[in-house]
Protein: Succinate-semialdehyde dehydrogenase
Organism: Thermothelomyces thermophilus
Amino acid sequence: MAPKLRDPSLFKQDVCYVNGEWVKARSAKTFEVHDPATGQLIGTCPEFDAQDTEKAIAAAAAAFEEFRHKTGRERSKLLRKWYDLVVENADDLATLISWENGKPTADAKGEVTYAANFFEWFSEEAPRIYGDTIPSSVPGNRVFTIKEPVGVCGLITPWNFPAAMITRKVGPALAVGCTVVCKAPGETPYTPLALAELAHRAGIPKGVVNVITALGNTPEVGEVLTTNPTVRKVSFTGSTPVGKLLMKQCSGTLKKLSLELGGNAPFIVFDDADVDQAVAGAVASKFRSSGQTCVCANRIFVQRGIYDEFATKFAAKVATFSVGNPFDTGVTHGPLIHSRAIDKVEQHVRDAQQKGARVLLGGHRLPDLGANFYQPTVLVDMTTDMAMASEETFGPVAGLFPFDTEEEVVRIANSTPVGLAGYFFSRDLERVHRVAEHLEVGMVGVNTGLISDPAAPFGGVKESGFGREGSMYGIGEYQVTKMVTYGGMGKKLQS
Ligand SMILES: NC(=O)c1ccc[n+]([C@@H]2O[C@H](COP(=O)([O-])OP(=O)(O)OC[C@H]3O[C@@H](n4cnc5c(N)ncnc54)[C@H](O)[C@@H]3O)[C@@H](O)[C@H]2O)c1
Ligand SMILES: O=CCCC(=O)O
């Protein structure tokens, strides 16, 4: 049965938001969106194509001419209004997130708060965008910089945070005066479309925010967003292979680019750690959104002296989870997003078992609950030849790897082409600094498994991409620095 919304008009079917209006695809084609918990049809959405996308870009380009000249204070007020509406409609947005993504209600509400906070944060940054005054090396010259909005932005986001991945991009883009075309994820389009409706109600001028949808046509839409010369910036969150493809496509017009890509987060527990605290941190990091976040612990390394104690306590905590329909009371973990996700998890568990891992907990699907449910799983005796050591599982499976020395574990932790988040637990101050400095990642959690915060810069190194979202650094991703030199200055006062 479809969940009820307090405000049913937030559920936008068969329309996208372009130039301040709700429009269908030119071809009238649609695609289906299914509830990952029940497999039932949620609704249909427009299958935008290249021409539809061009129209959205043209709308964003037309709006840019005026929007870029609004004052920071004006843009701040618009973002603040949008923030207020997101907060007012938090329950409905959370319902949409749970329905199309499968995360339990409490997690979905947490995501709405997280998402809204990006609007709040960047509404506060908008009036505080400064240039520089630079001492010139040429006598009589005066050098200034102006921070200008880069222009029309193409934003592409994944399904795992249907609201927050969008607000983390749109917030800074609007704060600096850019206009945007967001390609919503085909699995979870209804939350982005509800955000668009709230943008409309907030009075964001037409064409400033455009939200379009596609599933089968995704590569075609992506190609337009990355090759159309009017689009000056692309920001993508998703997998590394798609990020590499988009970067290639952007090269023809040399767009400014931010890539927030896949991770393979090491989570290291040294034997001087507070074991209970480390267990809590590892559970929180590994099983957030059923393991479907890019910063989830993917390889849990535990020093041999505390390995058994850690494994027993960790499995005991995971055993308390309640898996089920995201709307059911008491459920802590919902389904995975689709059958490909379940298949990958199953392959990783089977591969680990074949290579000698033992299942301490779980290790199987939950077909009685539905096709996309998997029992939260704990594997021990993991070794580095297993697929889980080198690939992101993106599911509710924790593999515990024993290790002996600091040097060994940091070397193994770094032996991957990606570097998004890394975590470790230790009470030795010198070690804390040493290890934090040696981990090849963009974000480090020390004695915590949760690092996401709109005030903190989010992003990776190596093949996890580049650019930072959130924080004061998030703003610069949507700006260009223009230098202005004034010659013939600094002369004597005229008498
Ligand atoms: N670094 C981060 O901030 C971050 C955040 C969330 C997810 N991720 C990563 O995303 C991956 C999981 O998401 P996924 O499997 O949906 O990733 P994905 O790369 O397949 O898809 C992400 C988005 O890109 C779109 N897309 C796919 N192919 C495209 C193309 N050719 N042109 C344009 N758009 C295209 C999809 O429709 C979707 O909206 C994981 O690797 C995860 O680590 C990273
Ligand atoms: O999945 C990636 C984003 C997760 C986060 O912002 O915490």
Observations:
- The pocket of 4-oxobutanoic acid (ligand 2) is lined by residues 160-161, 293-295, 452, 458 (CB under 6 Å).
